[in-house]
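EI: anyone free to look at a 236-residue chain?
SC: sure, send it
EI:
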Amino acid sequence: MAGPGPEQGSAVSCLTTTFCVAGDAGGEIQIGTPPVATSTTITSAPATAVAGQPVTVGVSVTSAQAGTGAATPGGTATITVGSRSCSATLSGSAGVASGSCKITESAPGSDHVSASYAAQGSFATSATSASSVLRVGKAAARVRLKLSASRVKYGREHSERLTVTVTPQYTGTPGGKIVILTGSKTVCSKSLSKGKAACLLASRRLRPGSYRLRVRYDGNADFKSAYSSYARLRVT
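SC: here you go
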């Protein structure tokens, strides 16, 4: 003879690992202890960031029975920023647990920041009732100009190789266009490939004399425009 249990044809739904509800035509039967309600809140989040910058977001999960000696929610909470998410490991006492994790925003824009806690142990699920907004701007870039030689003969300027490297403030690969200038005169113009560009000087483009060269990076959707330091070139 079969032991006690839900009648044939009944459906069982477990809201937590310690609480289930069995339902059939005759009604519902609760098995175990009802889950303890929780509330989830964002405790810290930056209002602004730049593309490629890792941001830390804090979260708190509080038991409805919080107080001295109360059980504390455990496990993890999920923090979501736009389409990205991370898991914050929770720890605490007296019914209040907190944690944090980092998310890297890859592009400028505005994203909502929210958090949720899935039912774990004897605690019920919960989520933030409202989300904050993180505004992400363009990141800075560092521009470097390297000359293959500091002196070149007039008429043989094509032996001079100018190399440009644009590196990100955090992560990503700067793209777009660079212009090498001496004063207001354009010496070379190139598109970046994997954050780099190179060009040779045109013959007889620069008269004999001393020149201060620098690079103007025009920026793109993710990075701000920037200039390099000056590099000196002498044409003899």
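EI: The two ends are 107 Å apart (CA to CA).
SC: 👍
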